[in-house]
Amino acid sequence: MKRHHPTTGLKRARLFRRRQPRRRRLSLIRYLILTCMFAGAAHLFAASPISVDIAVKSLSVAQAPRMVNDVLILSYASNPPPRFVGARFAHESWKILHPYAVNENNVYALDYVVPEGLREIRYRIEVDGLWTTDPANPRVDTDVLGTEFSVYTIENEPVRPIVSPRVQRDGAVTFMYHDAPGRRVSLEGDFNNWDPFMTALEEGSPGVYSVTLRIPPGPHWYLFFSAGRRILDRFNVETGTDPDGNTVSYFRF
Hints:
The protein has helices at 9-18, 28-40, 42-45, 49-57; strands at residues 23-24, 66-68, 71-76, 85-89, 98-99, 101-102, 108-113, 120-127, 130-132, 140-142, 148-153, 166-167, 173-178, 185-189, 199-200, 202-205, 208-213, 219-226, 229-231, 239-241, 247-252. By secondary structure, the chain is mainly beta. The protein has two domains: 9-44 and 161-252, Immunoglobulins (Immunoglobulin-like); 49-153, Immunoglobulin-like (Sandwich), CATH 2.60.40.10. Strands 1, 14, 15, 18, 19, 20 and 21 form a seven-stranded antiparallel sheet that branches. A hairpin with a 2-residue loop joins strand 8 (120-127) and strand 9 (130-132).
């Protein structure tokens, strides 16, 4: 990316508005290259969402709860099939109803991303308006009021895929980058005036870098900067162009 000549912030802002970056579709070749990159890194970043999709679609009968990476898969089946199946979780104070989806085998399934740090999952299911425990899960417990609920225990923290950018519950945005350990990595984009030295990432685990920012909602364009190179976000397939016509990473939230 070319460095802009020194100018006022107002003038640079006007320049950027006049030449708004545009989104571009991935070419087939680039898509295949990115797919191979993700497949090769699966043992580091967990399997792709395709693994979860296959697990759900392949269900021919209801099965006991199981984890696919950081996703808990619940299933339900009966004859005749119900009209609706959903689940509520204790760690959400039973407030959110998560509807199941039915596959081609008339098996209802829910793929639920487990929050970080959660080891024991307590839940109840709703079948056509009636609350009950999960018949596919033999583990049942009772609260102080005598209400029964199903229990599933996660032995180890699941491997979680890297998602970048990730919008947090409080509205902040986390950018993730993976490279060799011990690098100096920074982030530049329209939200920090394309300054490659203003926003540094921290190395949380060997080779995994991140930074969390509060930026205004809307479309944004950015790149990582490391070892003198400007680098696209490999975990984000969306791209656009900057005011100089260079390819940059793109996202909207």
